[in-house]
Amino acid sequence: MSDATLVELFSSIQGEGPYVGRRQLFLRFHGCNLECSYCDTVQPSPPTRCRVETAPGSALFRELPNPLSLATVAGIFTDWDDRFPGLHHSISITGGEPLLHPELLARWLPLLREIRPIYLESNGTLPGPLGAVIDHLDFVSMDIKLPSATGLPPFWETHRKFLEVAVGKDLFVKVVVAPESSLEEIDLLCGIIHDVDSCIPLILQPVTRSGRPAVSAQQLLRFQERGSRLLADVRVIPQTHVFLDLL
C-alpha cells in the first residue's frame, strides 16, 4: 500500500526535547503498540478522515478522506514550505507510533526528506522497524518508558537495542518521569544510555497532569543529579506546547 491512514497534518512548534521551540511540519500517524497511562494522543480506532491545517499555524482545519497518498501529503508540505521559506526546521513523523508502518515509511521518507529533514518521534520499542528506515532519518527523538510512569512492564533490553540502531543519527532520549519514579529507574536508564554513548542527551520530562508538571522541582533536581553521574548532558524540559495551548 502506498497510502496511509493519518490523523492530522499541521504546523507548530516542537514542544519537547532539545529542539523545543523550533517550528516543524507535523505528520501524525494513527495507532500505537503501547498504552501508557499518561498518553495525550489516544486514538481508539482508525480515523476515516484526516485533519489538515488550512494554513501553517492557523489552527483552522479541513478534512480529507483517509487514506492519503504520498503525493497529497508531499504537495501540502511543499506548498507550506514554499509559502514560508526557512520557517520549518524539519518534518516531525509522530503518532501514535509511526514505526508501526516501516514499509510505508521506507517509501514515503525519501520524498518527504527532499522538502525538509526528517525528525522521528518514537516510543523506542521497535528496533527492527527502526533499522528498516534509519537511512532516511536525520533526527531521532526516542522515549525510554519507565514502569512507574507508564503503568507498563519495563522495556530495558528493547530500549538498548533501539539505541544501538539509532546512535549514528542526531539522537536524544526523552523520559517522562512521575512522582512515583525512583532513583533506581534513573540509574537503570542512564546505565543503558551510557553503555551505548554517554554523550547522548537525556531529557527528563515531568508528567503533565491537569495542565501542569506533576513532579516537584526537588525531585527533578535529584533525578538530574543522579543522571549526571553517568551522562554528559541531562536536562529538565517540560511539555511547553501544553503551556502555550498549541498542538
Salient structural properties:
247 residues; alpha/beta; TIM Barrel; ten-stranded mixed beta sheet; two-stranded antiparallel sheet; 8 helices; 31% helix
Could you describe the 3D structure shown?
The chain contains 8 helices and 14 strands. The chain is of the alpha/beta class and 247 residues long. The chain has a domain at 3-173: Alpha-Beta Barrel (TIM Barrel). Strands 5-4-2-3-7-8-9-10-11-14 form a 10-stranded mixed β-sheet. Strands 1-6 form a two-stranded antiparallel ribbon. Strand 4 (49-53) and strand 5 (61-65) form a beta hairpin. Helix 2 packs parallel to helix 3 (127-133), helix 5 (156-166) runs parallel beside helix 6 and helix 6 (183-196) packs parallel to helix 7 (217-227). The longest helix is centred in the N-terminal third of the chain and has 14 residues, at 70-83. It is globular. The two termini are 29 Å apart. The mean pLDDT is 95.
